[in-house]
Write a structure and sequence with these properties.
The structure holds two protein chains of two kinds. By secondary structure, chain A is α/β, with parallel strands linked by helices. Chain A is built from 15 helices and 17 strands. Helices cover about 40% and strands about 25% of the residues of chain A. In chain A, the strands form four sheets. Chain A has a nine-stranded mixed β-sheet with strand order 9-10-8-7-6-5-4-1-11, sandwiched between helices. Chain A has a three-stranded antiparallel β-sheet with strand order 12-13-14, with no helix packed on it. In chain B, strand 18 and strand 19 form a beta hairpin. The termini of chain B are far apart.
Chain lengths: ~375, ~600
Amino acid sequence: MTVGLYIHVPFCLKRCSYCDFVSYIYEPEAAEAYITDLSAEIRLYGPLLREDEKRVASIFFGGGTPTSLPAASLKTVMDEIGSVFCLLPDCETTVEANPGTVHPRYLDSLAEAGFNRLSLGVQSFDEGLLRVLGRRHGRRDVENAVRWAREAGFQNINLDLIYGIPGQAAEGWLETLERAVAIAPEHISAYGLQLEEGTPLARAVARGELVPCAEETELLMYLKAVDYLTSNGYMHYEISNFAKPGRQCAHNLGYWLNLPYLGLGAAAHSFFRNRRFRNESSLARYHEKLLRGEYPVEEELPVTLDAEMAETMFLGLRLIDGVSLSSFCRRFGRCPGEVYREEIAGLKKAGLIELKGDFLRLTGAALPVANRVFREFA
Amino acid sequence: MERERDRIRNFCIIAHIDHGKSTLADRFLEYTGALSGREMTEQVLDQMDLERERGITIKMQAVRLKYKAADGREYQLNLIDTPGHVDFSYEVSRSLAACEGALLVVDAAQGIEAQTLANVYMALEHNLEIIPVINKIDLPGAEPERVKKEIEDVIGLDASGAVMASAKYGIGIENILEQIVAKIPPPGGREDARLRALVFDSHYDPYKGVIAYIRVVEGSVRSGMRIRMMASGKEFEVSEVGVFRPAPAAVDGLGTGEVGFIAAGMKNVKDCMVGDTVTDAERPAAAPLPGYRKATPVVYCGLYPVDPGEYESLKDALEKLKLNDASFTYEPETSEALGFGFRCGFLGLLHMEIVQERLEREYKLTLITTAPNVVYRVTTTAGEAVYVENPSKLPPAGKIESIEEPYVKATIMTPKEYVGAVMELCQERRGSFSNMEYMSVSRVMLNYEIPLSEIIYDFFDQLKSRTRGYASLDYEMAGYVQSDLVKLEILIAGEVLDALSVVVHRDKAYYRGRQLVEKLRELIPRHLFEIPIQAAVGNRVVARETVKAVRKDVLAKCYGGDVTRKRKLLEKQKEGKKRLKQVGNVEIPQEAFMAVLGVREK
């Protein structure tokens, strides 16, 4: 077996208005202490894991803003990982970056530290909308970041884009897509904005200061993204994800195929040995537990067979190819057609799923309303 | 000694809800030593939780008190409890018939209410001696003199000797007891006549069978006696005779004029209906006591289990309740939207609510109740008269010659500043004015004839809210009157939702239709297709709304940290889906039915 590693870096220079992830404002001392804790956590896994569980197929540094930390800190963590785990030769190693936080030397250091994929949180090329989102960077920052990253040797770059922003028009979204494609990244993620409860953006909408995007407009934007990106050489391979051939994100594919992963760092989630667990989200508690030599886990849940099958279905159906029936049967010893007979029949009748070869997949019509399909498998 | 009839007094208490009947009863028990103060923590006459919460008495009991009067003699006082709501007026009349006197308890701050008045008139019809008691004189707003005058002006009773009391503080209790002894006559009736005893209440006891509460009018009843119920014709052997002090206590027998209970292995309250006459099976009386009538339901509704798996439990629960309450009826019915359930008949709206609550509380059932309706009398074009208890069973419009609906004579008492508001309400509810009378300078009595269907549709709540709770209502059935009525149907995506069909006056069809479709539009979740909601009279659509289709419903991101949360969310949605009722292609949440069926005017 192989495992994916997720490293959470819970620091940002500034919080974005739409974000509800666990993150704190960057402070050098706190960040330094955190790197020490994170290294300690990585070392705890050394004696616990069997050799085959140490085979790492992908690494993903997410946040927060990993690049709010000095490159040397990220390298320290990478070295620690290398000392405990066995990185497979073609291991995809991604780091998320905010376009405003990188410069040429920094990117060189990241490449030297072993990162081979850069994921840039671009969100939009419209400066007004970037302000709505509370982003610090501008249009030029993105172009510079990509150019410098190429110069530093990054051959695998992703741009995150967001549509459905209050005040965004369909034409504006098309312009953002055009600019993104013009930069020629290997991968583009296009996310519909989710108004998460408690975020400044959601509150502004609730107060009526911002008008949320109409459902019809959001649908139009989604369809436009699919249309524009697929006709420009990007494969639509997951509901919100597009890639040049062979450049699908290996790490995220692991999530959608419901494969095991270890999450390291505060608030990181893991799915490992049939359990899902989540680390302490408070930095203080995360630190205390590690200081005592304990695993910094806050909550742990066993995954029952039923739950694992359900997850395999609704995660797998996020992929445009769908769920491989033969893989499912091999993994669980039971086939979807048997476990979800009624559900599948009903969804087929409603024109929401279809069978193509060995794969059960969403129909084109079901993509924008996929939750209606997913819940049948819960 | 106890049987010496000139020392028996049978009486009841007539009072409006909250005017202090239960507290007063408690004081009697305490004063006469039947119960200690500590035992009085709960008001004993009101047995059921539900009654306590609603502050009303549903089931009557009779308590025997021993009272040593000022004249030095010991009296047997039988306090017969009466229900305090219009739905149970027949039961009230039977318990009044079991008494020679009544205490008229009036709140010193509030004065006479419509209900009280109706019951006093009923007591006067039974020739009861009435003792006015002005209660709650301790209240800051008490106006005992005004209330006294009201009693004199409105009822025409001499209130000069009215007892000034505060049941709460035990003031005036002895005075009341003395007046009971002095003013209420002892029971008459011939001791040597053949047994005739009036059943004024009954309840089902799982160990003893039906317990009948009786007043012996003539002759006597003993344990071991073979009795016959004169209305049902059924015969039983008396296994137990007793009285409540207030705990049940066995006695050898009950003589003429006495009040108590008998158990006789009766399996069902149907065998022993309120108002029936108990006689000696060996030496039966020639004729029953007057006044018996079968209680007929006037309000109907459908009761359905939310979980179809609870149908059998509901059936069992209804059977058990019926053992205890002969006045409600039920029969199986099927609704396309709600599945299997029962159409139940009640004496009134409150009776309906009580039964529903007992089913939910005591039998742990979760129910959907359709809108209550009255019984319509339909004359078909073929000249046949049919009674319709379910709006969805109304014959097709083309086959209806005419529809009649039950009217009531309503008496409303209100402070005079609300007369306009009350008249407006009655007008809106198709009432026709018959009379208005000033009870005092500040209070007015209004008489209207109003369709019962309007009364059961939110009338009482409206009356209360438009008069800040000051008005009171009483009504009695006044027969059938022809009206321009139509069946209003609700269609969801073209399918008739039978459970929501209502019969309404033609002039109100548009308004009611609008209300229903608007409410449903809010409550029916969006589907992947558009759902038209229509209200129609025959083929004519009177109101229409549309539930728009869902165009986008997908979680944009789902990565490692989202899986558990996402699955729980999906599970919850799926769980919610199980409670949906499928109507055609449309899934409707139970809540939608409940909310629509409980629809209130804004």
